[in-house]
Amino acid sequence: MDAQLRRGVLDVCVLVAIKNKDSYGYKIIKDLKPVVELSESTLYTILKRLEEGKMLIVRSVEFEGRLRKYYHITQRGLKRIEDFKDEWEELMRVYSFIVEESDL
Amino acid sequence: MDAQLRRGVLDVCVLVAIKNKDSYGYKIIKDLKPVVELSESTLYTILKRLEEGKMLIVRSVEFEGRLRKYYHITQRGLKRIEDFKDEWEELMRVYSFIVEESDL
DNA sequence: CTACATACCTCGTGATATGATGTATTACGA
DNA sequence: TCGTAATACATCATATCACGAGGTATGTAG
Question: Do residues A24 and A70 make contact, with C-beta atoms less than 8 angstroms apart?
């Protein structure tokens, strides 16, 4: 998929990935793999940004000798997902324009 | 609309705006206004990029004392529009994931 | 003569995704 | 036991991009 198109949905995908159950970086990538491909560096930048934006909170857990940072969505994060759905409506109108105009 | 979401559609909108009839910068902005708001600086950057990517060609015309640069879409530009439609299908799958997962 | 519309352009900034690279542990097959 | 893959985190440099601020110039309406 086009890099630019991905940008608009990546952070929301990450939020959705942790919405119903707290998760951690490595797992998020695996879970999202069938939906969107994202590299580790990309994910960790997104996670950091979402944390700074208070859309999620972090909790470090020791698991089998390894560190795991579990991410939990906040109210703000949930709102971000809802806002995205509204924005999608707008985007759909743009898409309609593209399809209608280009098929003339 | 979210800045990131716009990014993925802006250049295609510009291509669509000139697809059926050659147009120029100032007019493109006016024509696209009801669909997507874009500033002059943004448009001219996009036009330049599209030109460099050989998706359109330029023709300068003197019109009532003012310079007008008419943009004409190329085969490559047309292909970009078609490719976008395919990418949209992919994006729809991502959107479905977001809606389904977030409504659990 | 002033202000607005038309019409172009450039530069700096901030935001972003990503590859490359690094650290450390566990699991497993050769 | 040796090497390699999987697990799990992180940072840095780079490239791409939208956009505001600013600039130039002409025609038109008040």
Answer: yes
Domains and CATH numbers, chain B: 3-102 (1.10.10.10)
Over the stretch A47-82, which tens digit does the pLDDT of each residue have?
999 999 999 999 999 988 888 999 999 999 999 999
CB of B95 less than 8 A from some CB of A: yes
B73's enclosing H/E stretch is strand B66-73
Q: Look at the pTM and tell me if it is higher than 0.85.
A: yes
How confident is the model over B51-102, as pLDDT tens digits? 999 999 999 999 888 889 999 999 999 999 999 999 999 999 999 999 998 7
B40: nearest nucleotide, CA–C1' criterion: D19
Which of A1, A84, A93 lies nearest to residue B91, judging by beta carbons?
A1
Q: Pick out the nucleotide with least CA–C1' distance to A2.
A: C17
Contact A13 B102 (CB under 8 A): no
Q: In which residue are the tokens 């003197």 written?
A: B62
- The residue among B94, B103, B104 with the most chain A CBs within 10 A of its CB, best to mutate, is B94
State the DSSP string of B33-56: TTT----HHHHHHHHHHHHHTTSE
At residue B95, φ and ψ (nearest 5 deg) are -60, -45
